[in-house]
Amino acid sequence: MSSVAVLTQESFNEHRSGLVAEQAGGDSAGDEEAPAYKDAFPPLPEKAASPEGTQEPVNAWTSKIRPLKSSVITQVFHVPLEERKYKDINQFGEGDQAKVCVDIMHKTGAHLELSMAKDQGLSIMVSGKLDAVMKARKEIVSRLQTQASATVAIPKEHHRFVIGKNGEKLQELELKTATKIQIPRPDDPSNHIKISGTKEGLEKAKHEILLISAEQDKRAVERVNIDKVFHPFITGAYNKLVADMMQETGARINVPPPSVNKTEIVITGEKEQVALAVAMIKKIYEGKKNATTIAVEVKKSQHKYVIGPKGNTLQEILEKTGVSVEIPPPDSNSETVILRGEPDRLGQALTEVYAKANSYTVSSVVAPSWLHRFIIGKKGQNLAKITQQMPKVHIEFTEGEDKITLEGPTKDMQMVQSQMEAIVTDLVSRMDYMEISVDPRFHRHLIGKGGANINRIKDLHKVSVRIPPDNEKSHLIRIEGDPQGVQEASKELLELASRMENERTKDLIIEQRFHRAIIGQKGEKIKDVRDKFPEVIINFPDPAAKSDIVQLRGPRNEVEKCSKFMAKMVADMVENGFFLSVPIFKQFHKNIIGKGGANIKKIREETNTRIDLPAENSNSEMIVITGKKENCEAARIRILSIQKELANITEMEVSIPSKLHNSLIGSKGRFVRSIMEECGGVHIHFPTEGSGIDTVTIRGPAEEVEKAKKQLLSLAQDKQTKSHTAELKAKPEYHKFLIGKGGGNIRKVRDSTGARIIFPTLDDEDQELITVVGTEEAVREAQKELEELIKSLDNVVEDVMNVDPKHHRYFVARRGQVLRDIADEYGGVMVSFPRSGANSDKVTLKGAKDCVEAAKKRMLEIIEDLDAQVTMECVIPQKFHRSIMGPKGSRIQGITRDHNVQIKFPERVDESEEAAVQENGEANGEMVEEPAAPVDPTAPKKCDVIVLSGRKERCEAAVEALKALVPVTTEVEVPFELHRYIIGQKGSGIRKMMDEFEVNIQVPAPELQSDIISITGLANHLDRAKEGLLERVKELTAEQEDRSLRSFKLTITVDPKYHPKIIGRKGAKITNIRTEHDVNIQFPDKNDDNQDQITITGYEHKATAARDAIQAIVDELEEMISEDITLDARVHARIIGARGKGIRKIMDEFKVDLRFPQPGAADPNQVFVTGRPELVDEAIDHLLNLEEEYMADVNENESKMTYMKPTGDRGASSMDEGGRERGSSKGFVVREAPWQTGSEKAPDMSSSEDFPSFGAPVAATNKASPWGPKRF
Predict the structure, then answer these.
(1) What is the number of other CB atoms lying within 10 angstroms of the CB of residue 438?
(2) What is the overall mean pLDDT for the chain?
(3) What share of the chain is helix, strand, coil (3-state, %, to 5)?
(4) Which of 146, 590, 648, 944 has the most CB atoms around its CB within 10 Å?
(5) Hey, which residues does 966 pair with through a beta bridge?
């Protein structure tokens, strides 16, 4: 850390005046004693530590200074002149060299400062963190210094040591030497390493690489091949022998493990060490290679006991007897074990092998698999008691098997087996299990959040409960444990499940547009609601589903509270955003939207509203308008007017007292919706509740509007006089049966009683509720009839009918689709067929009596159809089959459904396979036997025959329908040059036509140069497609003619000097001409021969107009004159102004062009003014006036400068503040200075030798200087 002295202007003046203020009485500056040199310039502290017991003197430099270690370092690099890459001395600090330095600073984060030495070498000071400085150094050397290259050859096997682990050594070398080192790849036989960098770096890198190689030369590698069977003798028991050898020799010995089938032993280290180790290994091998071997048979299952855990038993035998035991590999079937060693030790080793083989026994204990967990105990506590006593016994449980396998020492097995049998007997006597059936949808609620519910039941009743995972979809829950606990747990679980079945689920109708607002950002708002009602589960529909139903589920009271709370939230939102729904017939929605959304966009912008249309696949006709009330009304009128223009829509107003409106609408619009559905989907609009308006609007086709009006007035009259409503409930599956086919059943009830019966829609909350509306008597009678029908449906009966087994498959095929349709149509009748393989024709029907009878009748009709089935063939060439089927088989499905027939297409046969059968009777090179009878050439091919099954008349109709689907081909002549336009970019044009007309259009290949385009498709589509194609040809022909007209070219000759004026500033003028006349204007390129030719392309009349416009500009320019005036160069900058603002203002004001001289011009005062004569004169007058004004300021400033004291004047006399003259200054005087005590003298400030100029040559001198030895 350094101390810094701050020198202010005042203190500097004091030093210059001798540090003594001039006294009024003329006191001399020398009266005060001058400071000593050591006090004024205290020396820096010495580096060496003070001797012990002595104290360092405190001075100005050492007081209060604490040493700090900085993380920033500074290094200086020198690049000699001959090695500099950029040697242009005139561009120092500029050009490529400066750019390189800036780039290095950005890359490395280090700070660079460049300076030029006297010898024109480059000194670069780099500051920053160590790694940044090192990286910067490498960049400097490679980019600012000329590069040399050299190669160094070292043995190929030493290369990896130069690279180091993960290339770390190589990177370190490159950073250290600031070079680039290239090492040949492993597959390259070359041993030359290439180094590039500076000369100094090359030498360093070469030296380091040779050092690494020399170090590796001292090492050796030896490989010894010894049979695998002798490796145990070399390693010794537990690898002790090989470890001793490595310690004794210092070499590294690598013996392959027993599992690796290699014989090579690798020894590495110093040459002498390796040689000694090799000798020792060979000595052991020589001693053991004639060892005796015996082979014994040991059961394969006992081999693992001989080997022991991790081969420890083999090592133990080797240690005890010195005999190696060789066990066959596990994948071998051999049971032969070989013992190798000294003859006198083989007997002992054999005894050990048999003892180890027979030391273990395997047995099993019978135990039900469900008891296994209890035998093991929590965290294996029960087993731990046994295994702690007998640690060598292994107990294995197999899932799904009613047994436990025991394996261990023979002496321990009997005791363990008896203990296990006792545990099993005890558990069987006091444990029980039970399986209960619970609907899988309640399983996760039984488990509870984080398993809270199920864990409580387990802990309370000391039982184990297994609930099947969701993917199993099983109803069975298994409870195991104490009999009483099992009973209590099952009871509690069943109660919980029963309670959940009675749990309330409520569907809250909240418009989807409010869902996001209720949920809140990142779900914050809905989280607050859920925290407020933790027992209620709130489910919002998927945004893509476009559903308004929000489902609440939980305890009844909590669900009601949550429902009210959320309804209040929605009410608050509704208050803050008015909206209304406009019913528009679905077919007119596309007209409301308009082409590219033009209509809807215009309405939105003009009325400032948001308009939401239902999705295309939705059945809704409502268009929702949101915004201010008056804006919504305006948008509604606009939308309705579009519909009125497009269709014969009548709008009628009916006056009904407003007090009856709610009762006519009904709960959630049920009554009014039923009228709208009956009357062909008319729209009935009631005024806003509480408005007091009696007018109800009915909109739709004239006949339907009249019908709806009558029904509405009739209902209003009934409501006003004798209206009565009743409600009754029936299971949703009965509704279809009550309504009847085509509404037949319910119409009978309506006609006989005169009451109106309304069934719930899919959106209604209560799906069982049926509402009856009418007079009291009519309602009573209708209710009575309906209740009788429902009662009969509730009266479940079982009936049996006989169905021939050959028809069973038809009913159960496609996962029982036919049976499901029957169940849906006839009040949920259950139909049971006998199992597959059972030779029975009895079919059971279960359900309401009437439903069973109706279903039975329907099944008999189906059987009659099946019995009357015929099989018919329809021959259509195979190439048309795919077209007949339609996309995803849609066409064939339609025929099957409409005609109630089965259609089977033949297997597809490749034409190339068929052609492979040659006339000589060979097929694919093999002889084929000749057929017994000649094949009829007129007979249809198998692959062309489509088989139909069903009633004869239906099959015939289906055959006609199939033949109508066979595509036909027609040809259209279209000029070849238009083909590419018909195809369009990447085939988009032709694809669009094919999709629009549902045909296939085949355009001939370009090389054929044909005009014929083929159209293939259904006969009724071809005419439309042909018309469409010819219409497209007309359009393209018209476009072609238009292109021809647009390609008219016109050339105008204009002097190149006028080109910039025609183009204008930033191309403004020429762009304006191009846009105004819709033409393309091309100016000549720099290399063109005709530099005065301007080409105009476009329609002829527009090109002519553009030419006239350019000629008008040229005529105007030719009228202009150019004059030069003399303006003093000293005022040019002021006239031009900041960023040319002043000169632009003059040019715009006077409509002239001004040209000032370039730096270095012959006459720096000459300015050119170009423009119309009268404007040029005015501009010149203005410029001369400005010159006169600015020159007055210039002259005034110059006159002031003559009276100012030059900054370099250092005269002997000066004036004090009062204007009095001071005496001459002695300067800053010190005592006991070095030049006073010795022979030296003070430096002469005027001497160029003591204070040389930068770059000036200095004569060599041996004279010592007070400033220290000279370094230049």
Answers:
(1) 22
(2) 77
(3) 50, 20, 30
(4) 944
(5) none
Residue type, 217: D
Spatial distance between the Cα atoms of 150 and 382, rounded to a whole number of angstroms? 76
Sign of CA dihedral 1191, 1192, 1198, 1204: negative
pLDDT number for residue 923? 42
Q: Which of 1083, 1046, 1087 is nearest to 1067 (CA)?
A: 1083
Which range among 481-485, 669-673, 752-756 has the greatest average pLDDT? 481-485
**What is the torsional sign of CA 89, 94, 96, 100?**
positive
Question: Is the CB of residue 943 less than 8 Å from the CB of residue 908?
Answer: yes
Q: Note the pLDDT of residue 54.
A: 41
One-letter amino acid of 286: E
Three-class SS state of 436: strand
CA dist 698 and 696 (Å) reads 7
Is the pLDDT reported for residue 463 higher than 70?
A: yes
Residue type present at position 365? V
- Per the CB < 8 A criterion, the answer to whether 316 and 349 are in contact is no
Long-range contacts of 1239-1243 (CB under 8 A, 24+ apart): 1240/1264, 1240/1265, 1240/1266, 1242/1266, 1243/1267
Task: Read off the tokens for 303.
Answer: 């081999």
Task: Please report which confidence band the pLDDT of residue 92 belongs to, taking 50, 70 and 90 as the band edges.
Answer: low
| CB count in 10 Å sphere of residue 76 | 11
Q: How long is the chain?
A: 1272
Taking the C-alpha atoms of residue 402 and residue 369, their distance in angstroms, rounded to an integer, is 5
End-to-end, the C-alpha distance of the chain in Å comes to: 28
For residues 276 and 244, the answer to whether their CB atoms sit within 8 Å is no
Which tokens in the block code for residue 973?
Answer: 């002549």
Q: pLDDT value at position 57?
A: 47
pLDDT in tens, 119-167: 777 888 889 988 888 888 878 877 777 777 888 888 887 888 888 888 8
- Label residue 594 by pLDDT band (50, 70, 90): confident
pLDDT at 68 exceeding the cut of 70:
no
| Residues 382 and 376 sit within 8 Å (Cβ to Cβ) | yes
- How far apart (Å, rounded) are the C-alpha atoms in residues 566 and 572? 10
Token couple for 1249: 């030798």
pLDDT for 1073-1099, tens place per residue? 888 888 899 888 888 888 888 999 998
Q: How many angstroms separate the CA atoms of 635 and 620, rounded?
A: 19
**Predicted pLDDT at 56:** 44
| 32 band by pLDDT with thresholds 50, 70 and 90 | low
Question: H or E segment at 745?
Answer: helix 744-753
Q: How far apart are CA 61 and CA 36, in angstroms?
A: 16
Cα gap 666→675, rounded to integer Å: 11
Closest CA to 378 of 462, 453, 469: 462
Complete DSSP assignment for 819-860: HHHHHHHTTT-EEEPPPTT----EEEEEEEHHHHHHHHHHHH
**Alpha-carbon span 360 to 392, nearest angstrom:** 9
Write the DSSP string, 33-54: PPPBHHHHSPPPPPSSPPPTT-
Residue 896 near residue 890, CB atoms below 8 Å: no
Q: Specify the 3-state DSSP secondary structure of 84.
A: strand
Q: Within 10 A of 60 (CB to CB), how many other CB atoms are there? A: 12
With a pLDDT cut of 70, the percent of the chain lying above it is 83
Helix or strand run (H / E) with residue 773: strand 769-774
What is the DSSP secondary structure assignment for residue 917, as one 8-state letter?
B
- Please write the tens of the pLDDT for every residue from 799-809: 888 888 877 87
Hey, what are 100's tokens?
């390189």
Question: For residue 848, is pLDDT > 80?
Answer: no
Average pLDDT over residues 842-858: 82
Name the nearest CA neighbour of 270 among 212, 196, 218: 218
Token pair listed for 599: 């209509």
Average pLDDT over residues 335-343: 87
Helical segments of 969-1018, H only? 979-983, 988-997
